[in-house]
């Protein structure tokens, strides 16, 4: 029940109900409570395969990219101390990574996830922080420096994750180097009543 309440309070209350949820076969996600709850919501549950998780290609790439981002972000070893002297580590700072990801333009869409979801981009600290202030409380100044550092490291983590995924994709998928005038063979599997030669010129 805790997972259902967390989903409701942290996700659904902000986004509304989902048509489809893709997840691993974690016991809480396959329980009768969870599955019946989403039957009420009208949400379809899709589970990855056991031992070798696979769902759909888009979700798989998103999961892999997220894993690389989080690993790199955690590797920076970020932390800060609050006014009570308590040290906060990456668990506290990881929302900064989420915010940076939501405001990063994706090459596949030409838009940020925030723009596609909300129709606008949120105001960021880099857009609003003033640099001409004096007599600033030391702890406020320290927190501002932490925000700057976290934002920089989050951007680096995202860029590195995107580059890694691109290199992996390019290594497997090599585009043919066609030139205008080259001859090419085209599959006629979905062509109806085609006659004549099966070779075509590259025109553009």
Automatic annotation (TrEMBL):
PROSITE patterns named in the record: INTEGRASE
Residue ranges that the Swiss-Prot or TrEMBL entry lists as coiled coil: none
GO MF annotations, alphabetized: RNA binding
Domain Integrase catalytic: 1-121
Keyword annotations: RNA-binding
InterPro entries attached to this UniProt entry: Integrase_cat-core, Retrovirus_Pol_polyprotein, RNaseH-like_sf, RNaseH_sf
Example GO biological process: DNA integration
Record bears the keyword Thylakoid: no
Gene Ontology cellular component annotations, sorted alphabetically: nucleus
Keyword hit for RNA-binding: yes
SUPFAM superfamilies: Ribonuclease H-like (SSF53098)
Protein name as annotated: Integrase catalytic domain-containing protein
Native source species: Austropuccinia psidii MF-1
